[in-house]
Predict the structure.
Amino acid sequence: MRKVRFGIGEFYHIYNCGVDKRSVFLETEDFERFLQSIREFNSQRPIGSLFENSFRDKTKLGNRVAKLVDIVGYCLNPNHFHLILKQRLDGGVSEFMHRLGSGYTQYFNIKHKRSGSLFQGKFKAIHVDSNEYLLHLSAYVNLNNRVHHVNDRSSKSSWGEYLGDNGNTRVKDIILKQFKNPSEYKKFAESSLRNILERKKLYKELENILLE
């Protein structure tokens, strides 16, 4: 039973890592498949597999099919991922993550000739209970590869989308509308990340002192 209860219109930090901290993204194609899954499994209507969904005429559906969640931000690192989700429908987060996790695991196991669980148990979820928390979390998630010293070629994040490369502008606007322009957000996010890393370093130093 989860301690976190998912509510409509609420924001959540969702994350998980590979079982035994193994890598879950081995190639560029793996990152792209996960991102495709994020887009296509985010639908109130069951789509079956991504292969089956590729044959459907999406132009006839238009915007009639409700989304389960809004994707506010993401970062995919070699052995784990972070998402910021806003629940749109009752049970949306749980349903979306179930489809995403099971669909990607099936793809990964077939491609890389393995079996069994890929992720470390149920996904982790933290309720984002304030706007300030949401803003700083967006910086942490968008720049999470820097937290773990992973280069840009070995990770994928929504950072570029926030700076204007591409992506779902409406969802990004949840964050960006609070800044004059993407450049101002960039300064905020990089400053926020520095503060997060400094606090993390101080915490580790304090922990080492207490253990001596």
About this structure: Residues 13 and 137 are 8 Å apart (CA to CA).
